[in-house]
Write a structure and sequence with these properties.
- With 568 residues, the chain is mainly α.
- It is 63% helix and 5% strand.
- The protein has 24 helices and six strands.
- The radius of gyration is 28 Å and the shape is elongated.
- It starts with a helix and ends in a 6-residue tail after the last helix.
- The N terminus is likely disordered.
């Protein structure tokens, strides 16, 4: 078995610029993510089926005591889970994935992924107002990261494999491969690249096919055929976009209130989230869980607008409490429900002849796009979930209006950036700085150098010079310096012919501008450039996993940034 494993490892750890291994790895990630999501959804459906019967989301049929006690029970189980889990494994969710992408070189620990699996089952199974897509993204991204770490991929390609896992998990959970691809590139990677499309698409379609074979058809929404009655309804669309933008802004404010709620204890915060959800569910049971049954009923025009307005108010508070107080679940499913309720209210009140169900559908896209700043992913999600291509023109109108109100009118950041800011993490959003923060020195590192310690004097010096490597790292006391191999050879020849010590002859070569900065871990190009601005240094020495020390010279870094020399 060992030779097969070794061949597998060597093939996938091949040249980092080769597309075929990445596409095949995307397919492998898709299959693994599909298997994990099959296990997750099967266990979740088993729990919901035990509670609610064949209609998995029918929390409305539960008795008042169950509606009150179920979220509280979930909070207690989550508190117990946190108590028995090491602190290092407790951080989860979509925001955590983004954090590890920018600050953790794309390395997602397996312990956090396993914790997310269990915690999400508890939260979703006990009716907390969260969704499955955040946990799905974390689990899929974790699979991609672990496979990339096993095959020694560079940090930039770990990012790509995390994108593959994200697309695969979304595709498997919702049977929406296109939305998975766009969500991965727009929300998680925050970039579109030609290299990234092929592996991410391979992951999405393999996950969709594999999970479909295991689960069968599992669309969470019933297909609807809704279209704009006429262009005379465009003023109503603009009003709907304005309304949806205001709802998104209110949601942002409520989340921030609960994020800053004056309770330090995680246990008390989780318990408060359970009490708020359970208390609201006594009067509005539709807020429990992801609410897909309510979404389907609204799209079919089965609920009056006053009830939708009541559900919207209660769901806003319950979802903001769940997210702000730390319930480990996703944000998209509650956002879709908030959007469909707000859109349904708009459809009943704005002037026009289009069906109210159309406005409910448009509200889903507008809410997701405005809150996450992901309009394309929102449009694709609605397109695939509803199978209603006729809704794309009005959807784009409403999504654009809502985004302008939320993002530019009230200057609200993406919800994910808000969550990270509360943790003291500020993500780079400027395009150039983002690109530099996403690439790492290890991708430029050279190993064509030797090391010489001045304290050893002439020991092994002749052997070192016989290697004829272009660079020599000379260590003196606590510092190290970069010397050209030829220059060191000339100094050694002079040393043998003159009555001077080697240290005296090398002194001119060991100037401050030739000093190397020795790092304890890999660093982004953005960090490296900031260091070069502050210090006159010749480059960096850094550890590269099992390969040992790598060298990145100042010349190599500047050449890469100012010429057409690509990072391979």
């Amino acid at each position: 078995m060992k030779p097969i494993t070794s061949k597998f490892h060597r093939f996938f750890a091949g040249p980092s610029h080769s597309l075929l291994p990445l596409v095949l790895m995307g397919g492998v990630i898709g299959i693994l993510s599909g298997l994990v999501m099959f296990s997750f959804l099967s266990l979740l459906n088993l729990t919901l089926g035990w509670l609610n019967g064949a209609n998995l989301e029918d929390f409305e049929s539960l008795s008042p005591w169950w509606r009150l006690g179920l979220p509280v029970l979930g909070s207690l189980l989550l508190i117990l889970l946190y108590r028995v889990t090491p602190v290092s494994g407790q951080t989860v969710g979509l925001a955590y994935v983004l954090e590890r992408l920018q600050f953790g070189r794309g390395q997602l620990p397996a312990a956090n992924t396993a914790f997310q699996f269990i915690a999400a089952l508890i939260a979703l199974g006990t009716g907390h107002s969260v969704g499955r897509e955040g946990p799905a993204v974390h689990m899929g991204a974790g699979i991609g990261s672990l496979l990339g770490q096993y095959t020694n991929r560079p940090p930039s390609q770990l990012r790509l494999l995390i994108g593959c896992g994200t697309a695969a998990a979304i595709s498997a959970a919702f049977n929406t491969p296109l939305a998975g691809v766009l969500f991965a590139m727009e929300v998680v990677l925050m970039e579109y690249s030609l290299l990234g499309f092929a592996p991410i698409i391979a992951a999405a379609i393999s996950a969709s096919a594999f999970s479909g074979a295991l689960l069968g058809p599992h669309s969470v929404l019933q297909p609807v055929r809704l279209s704009l009655a006429g262009y005379g309804d465009i003023p109503g669309l603009l009003l709907t976009g304005l309304w949806m933008g205001l709802v998104a802004v209110l949601f942002h404010y409520l989340v921030r209130i609960f994020l800053r709620f004056p309770l330090k204890s995680r246990a008390l915060r989780l318990l408060l989230a359970g009490l708020i959800t359970g208390g609201l569910a006594l009067f509005v049971p539709q807020i429990l869980g992801s609410g897909y049954d309510t979404i389907n009923a609204t799209l079919s025009n089965q609920l009056p607008w006053l009830l939708l307005l009541l559900i919207l108010g209660a769901k806003l508070i319950a979802t903001a409490a769940a997210i702000g107080l730390g319930v480990p679940g996703g944000q998209i499913a509650p956002m879709l429900m908030l959007g469909v309720c707000a859109g349904g209210v708009a459809g009943a009140l704005v002037p026009g002849t289009s069906e109210p169900g159309l406005y409910a559908l448009l509200g889903m896209a507008a809410m997701m796009g405005a809150v996450l700043h992901a309009p394309l992913a929102a449009l694709a999600t609605v397109l695939e979930l509803s199978l209603s291509a006729e809704a794309m023109f009005p959807a784009m109108t409403v999504v654009l209006s809502a985004n302008l109100v939320c993002q530019h009118g009230f200057r609200q950041p993406s919800l994910l950036l808000t969550l990270l800011k509360e943790r003291g993490r500020l993500l780079q959003t400027h395009p150039l700085r983002t690109a530099l923060a996403q690439r790492y020195l290890s991708e430029l590192a050279s190993f064509r150098f030797s090391e010489f310690d001045m304290e050893q004097n002439d020991k092994n010096l002749n052997t070192l010079l016989e290697q004829k490597l272009p660079w020599v790292v000379v260590r003196q006391s606590e510092h190290c310096y970069l010397v050209e191999g030829e220059a060191l050879a000339e100094a050694c020849l002079a040393w043998q012919q003159q009555d001077q010590t080697l240290a005296q002859l090398l002194a001119p070569l060991l100037s401050e501008r030739r000093r190397l900065i020795e790092l304890t871990e890999d660093a982004s190009l953005l960090t490296a450039l900031k260091t070069l601005q502050q210090e006159e240094t010749a480059g960096f020495l850094l550890p590269i996993g099992r390969l040992g020390l790598g060298l990145v010279t100042r010349r190599r870094l500047v050449t890469m940034l100012t010429t057409d020399d690509p990072i391979q």
